[in-house]
Amino acid sequence: MILTGPEITAAAHDGRLRITPFAADQVNPNSYNVRLGPTLIKYTSPVLDAHRPNPTRETTIGPDGHVLQPGELYLGHTLEEVGSNTFVPLLFGRSSVGRLGLFVEITAPIGDIGFHGQWTLMLTPIRPLRVYAGMKIGQIMFFVSTGAVDLYGGKYQAATGPQPSTYWRDLARLHVVESYEPSRVSPNAYDWRLGDTIRVCDGDLDAATPTPFTEQPIPDTGLVLRPGLLYLGITLEQTGSETYAQLLNGDRTTGSLGIWVHVSAPLGHQGHAIRWTLEIRAARPVRVYPGMTFGKLVFLTTCGAPASYQQQHAKYASTEGIDISRLYEEIDGGVR
User: Fold this and answer.
1) Structural domain for 322, as ranges
2) Backbone angles phi, psi at 7, to 5 degrees
3) How far apart are CA 150 and CA 83, in angstroms?
4) Same domain for 151 and 192?
5) pLDDT at 225
6) What are phi and psi of 225, to 5 degrees?
7) pLDDT confidence of residue 270
8) Distances in Å between the alpha carbon of 146 and those of 86, 143, 250, 299, 336?
9) Going by C-beta distance under 8 Å and a sequence separation of 6 or more, which residues neighbour residue 111?
């Protein structure tokens, strides 16, 4: 269940959520507009590495704005500090910003219950785009959670300004096992991991024919993902539920390295029990590792009579390992 605009206003006033500063004219019918803060940072290393700190350079957006260039990853921040100990916040770009070809987050919209601070924005433009400090750049929605609440107390708590990825701080807690691990449960999600195999799709694609690819293992020393290529990966975990729908996203640690973990396809069906095929893109060259925490999986309560994906015998119901697109099976004249 999502909060309406009037309920967001009421919750901001009675303390169930905090937005500082709060402005009534930024409340939408079911979201709150957040503004772009004045600071941007860029990574300076030619290849980013998830297992090491990556140096950055800071820029202040002047009164004439700042031009974002394609092929670059910029970390910005919201002007507002936003958080809640009651609701699950999700941040997306505004449609007006999307129509300018600007990605505001990289498959990492989910915030944790209990986080309070300025949100880091992962900015990547399709074309050169001039942006301005204080412009309304995104919108935050608030969802009602189900179950006991364990408040966020992680490394990005009370963030001020853009925060580069600190994934490397989590290395001591990594474990590569196939089973469920209670330690991977975050306040409102399960932290899933990248598997050890990847397919590289570097040719022209045709929706009516099977996707050509080369498959390779991800070595323990890591694999550098390159911009402009589509990679099909896989989750280490198999997940599924006959009770809940699933939503798979990246997290803000991988997103701030410029990694997309899906191409606008986060929804998992009720009754689908698989290892997920990942549609991976990189904004910049970045080294990834097998077993690294790659994103968050949330479970959503459904409404209406249940309909199990597995029982419908749909085309991905029996997937084992990475599966290419099988859209060609649906297209008249496609390869059978």
Assistant:
1) 183-329
2) -75, -35
3) 14
4) no
5) 97
6) -85, 140
7) 84
8) 10, 10, 21, 10, 44
9) 82, 83, 88, 89, 90, 91, 119, 140
Is the separation of the CB atoms in 244 and 224 below 8 Å? no
Local structure of residue 10 (DSSP, 8 states): H
What is the number of structural domains in the chain? 2
Residues in the chain, pLDDT under 50: 173-178
Place of tokens 């070809």: 101
The pLDDT value given to residue 172 = 53
Write the pLDDT tens digit of every residue in 191-229: 999 999 999 998 899 999 999 999 999 999 999 999 999
Q: Which residue stretches of 111-269 are H helix? A: 252-255
Judge whether 102 lies within some domain.
yes
Residue corresponding to tokens 């070595």: 219
Q: Give yes or no: residues 22 and 67 share one domain.
A: yes
Q: Could you give the CA distance from residue 224 to residue 43 in angstroms, rounded to a whole number? A: 16
The whole-angstrom separation of Cα 228 and Cα 99 is: 21
* Residues 9 and 152 occupy one common structural domain: yes
Same domain, 149 and 271: no
Strand partners, 192: 295
Task: Give domain status of residue 129, yes or no.
Answer: yes
Within its chain, how far is the Cα of 215 from the centroid?
Answer: 24
Contacts of 51 (CB under 8 A, 6+ apart): 167, 168, 171, 222, 287, 289, 292
CATH classification at residue 272: 2.70.40.10
pLDDT at 255: 95
Residue 335 domain-assigned (yes or no): no
pLDDT digits (tens, 9 = 90+) for 102-158: 999 998 899 999 999 999 999 999 999 999 999 999 999 999 998 999 999 988 999
Please check whether residue 167 lies inside any domain of the structure.
no
Where does a domain end: 162, 193, 222?
A: 162
Domain termination residue (choose one: 133, 162, 191): 162
Mark whether 191 and 93 lie in a shared domain: no
How large is the C-alpha radius of gyration of the chain? Answer: 20
Name the token pair of 118: 């300025």
Q: Contact 105/141 with Cβ under 8 angstroms?
A: no
